[in-house]
């Protein structure tokens, strides 16, 4: 199944939000004590995935106002990008299914006439 341009764009947007989250938490973690943990690359990836998946274990927490604002922005854009990707891909799947059923129906109609 091929994805539409809209679905590909929405997946790229989601990837961009993940990169923004990883890079932002990594940079903020190295600019000072913005988080309660050392934000190396692994912790930055972990924090971004846990935050965007809405699990939010609470083991890595933003402490400073700038870190909290960053996390709010990450959540808002992350949820928007995730829902956009989900609806685009779901629409592609539904369109393919409708097309397949339409083709089957046309084939049955041809055989009956």
Automatic annotation (TrEMBL):
<protein>
    <recommendedName>
        <fullName>Potassium channel domain-containing protein</fullName>
    </recommendedName>
</protein>
<feature type="transmembrane region" description="Helical">
    <location>
        <begin position="66"/>
        <end position="89"/>
    </location>
</feature>
<dbReference type="Pfam" id="PF07885">
    <property type="entry name" value="Ion_trans_2"/>
</dbReference>
<keyword id="KW-0633">Potassium transport</keyword>
<keyword id="KW-0406">Ion transport</keyword>
<keyword id="KW-0812">Transmembrane</keyword>
<dbReference type="GO" id="GO:0005267">
    <property type="term" value="F:potassium channel activity"/>
</dbReference>
<dbReference type="InterPro" id="IPR013099">
    <property type="entry name" value="K_chnl_dom"/>
</dbReference>
<dbReference type="GO" id="GO:0016020">
    <property type="term" value="C:membrane"/>
</dbReference>
<dbReference type="InterPro" id="IPR047871">
    <property type="entry name" value="K_chnl_Slo-like"/>
</dbReference>
<feature type="transmembrane region" description="Helical">
    <location>
        <begin position="41"/>
        <end position="60"/>
    </location>
</feature>
<keyword id="KW-0630">Potassium</keyword>
<keyword id="KW-0472">Membrane</keyword>
<feature type="domain" description="Potassium channel">
    <location>
        <begin position="17"/>
        <end position="89"/>
    </location>
</feature>
<keyword id="KW-0631">Potassium channel</keyword>
<keyword id="KW-1133">Transmembrane helix</keyword>
<keyword id="KW-0407">Ion channel</keyword>
<keyword id="KW-0813">Transport</keyword>
<feature type="transmembrane region" description="Helical">
    <location>
        <begin position="6"/>
        <end position="29"/>
    </location>
</feature>
């Amino acid at each position: 199944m091929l994805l539409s341009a809209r679905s590909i764009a929405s997946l790229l947007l989601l990837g961009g939000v993940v990169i923004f989250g990883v890079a932002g938490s990594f940079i903020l973690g190295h600019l000072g004590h913005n988080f309660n943990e050392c934000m190396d690359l692994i912790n930055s990836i972990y924090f971004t995935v846990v935050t965007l998946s809405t699990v939010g274990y609470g083991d890595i927490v933003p402490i400073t106002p700038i870190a909290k604002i960053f996390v709010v922005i990450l959540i808002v854009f992350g949820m928007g990008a995730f829902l956009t990707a989900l609806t685009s891909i779901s629409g592609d799947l539904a369109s393919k299914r409708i097309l397949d059923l339409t083709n089957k129906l046309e084939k049955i109609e041809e055989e009956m006439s």
